[in-house]
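tool_call: predict_structure(chain=1)
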Amino acid sequence: MAADRTALKRQAIVDAAREQFLERGYVGASMDAVAAAAQVSKQTVYKHFRDKRSLFTELLTADMASADDSVDSLGRAVPQTQSLEEDLTAFARAYLRSVMQPNLIRLRRLVIGEAERFPELARAWYEKGPESAFRRFTEWFEVLTERGLLRTDDPRMAAEHFNWLVLSTPLNKAMAEPHAEWSEIDLNVTADAGVKAFLAAYSARRRSDKHV
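tool_result:
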């Protein structure tokens, strides 16, 4: 019971921190304001988080983990796929929708805006976000190359190509235009086109067809 109350307080602090960081920026947010928004004492906040930096890092971790959860099951199917384009497309659609969640876009802007003053925050975000995705995709493409479904001389480079073919247009626009809106249909079209471009470059079958 006590453990449940502790977990609820911790979650309330993280939720309040998200609101404060997004509204006031990293510098403008204070532990006092977080405590007030979470309806806990300042001492309780410091009991869970040693400083503002560790609280912000926890927030990044929690929000990115939540985004990953929504696409994990689709991702697990990719290395063992029996229908590469179908499974890769299903993943790409879910992945793009996940990355384009408004709270994650706002956090991305916040981190980039503070990167020069707080490079360690930017490094933590990069490691938990893009770099984590690159490692996952690299592992997939190594397996798929071994299975003869892809031809990748450099699976890491292929992973980066896949990531940005799927994300680049809507993500870049969202970063520059805070009020830009994308329908699910728009995102699906972008994801589908990204997968087709990726397979045109890396599919073993399509490369073989060119030499027939």
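agent: The mean pLDDT is 89. Proceeding to next step.
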